[in-house]
Amino acid sequence: MKTRIQELRKEKKITQNELADALNVTRQTIISLENGKYKASLVLAHKIAQFFQSTVEEIFIFEEDENL
Amino acid sequence: MTGMCLLSGKGDYTTNEGYRKTVKKKIAVMSLIIILGLLSIAAIELCKHVFNIPIADYTEGLYLGIGTGLIACGTILIIKQKRILADEEKLKKARIAESDERNLAIANASWKTATIALLIAVYAEFLIAGMSMPQVARAAEILIAVFFIVYLVSYRTNAAKM
């Protein structure tokens, strides 16, 4: 799974630390999410979407085999 | 490695105030670790001096070592938690590190690996030492039985919750 978190974060001009603080997670989680190493839970994905005033589908790009 | 904690995942992590209560509970658990350490030392001393049971040097060293280790470990962890309680910023950092879902996922995966390794070690102990020492085989048998009973009960309890 790829994400647009880094792109949206840079657009908003906020650091990984600031985003981590807003979401109540560690900076390492943000790094792993941006690298695609870790898949966010539904709750965290929802919080990220809310933070960027967007939708989960617009932020998280699912691979072919992850779709119906 | 701030999130590396065997006791993380249970408790209130929503606010610093809620987490403060969770840390206090952790301190109580750590006090229990110190008591277990004292019990290990007391057991060997009682056997040696009160009940006059002959104890091998290795066994005595083992009990004393484990006892001292548990006391030291519990004391260090209590000091660490008290420091966290005294500093609001440290409290927030610890709260986030312990409730962070990635840290919890890492801890769960590590538990799984460690459990499999433990089961293999117990089986190896049963296979190698069990033949010459029936008590070792019996201890391994009890450990495996307790593990699977707890697993089954825990699985059913959790399945009912989810």
Task: Describe the protein's architecture and organization.
The complex is a heterodimer of chains A (68) and B (162). Chain A is mainly alpha-helical. Chain A is 56% helix and 6% strand. Chain A contains 5 helices and 2 strands; from the N terminus they run E-H-H-H-H-H-E. In chain A, strands 1-2 form a two-stranded antiparallel ribbon. Chain B is mainly alpha-helical. The two termini of chain B are 30 Å apart. Chain B has 5 helices and no strands. Chain B has helices spanning 16-50, 57-86, 88-99, 101-128, 134-161. In chain B, 12% of the residues are buried. The model of chain B has no long low-confidence stretch (mean pLDDT 90). The longest helix of chain B is centred in the first third of the chain and has 35 residues, at 16-50. Classes of the chains: A mainly alpha (68), B mainly alpha (162).
In a few lines, what is going on in this structure?
The complex is a heterodimer of chains A (68) and B (162). Chain A is mainly α and 68 residues long.
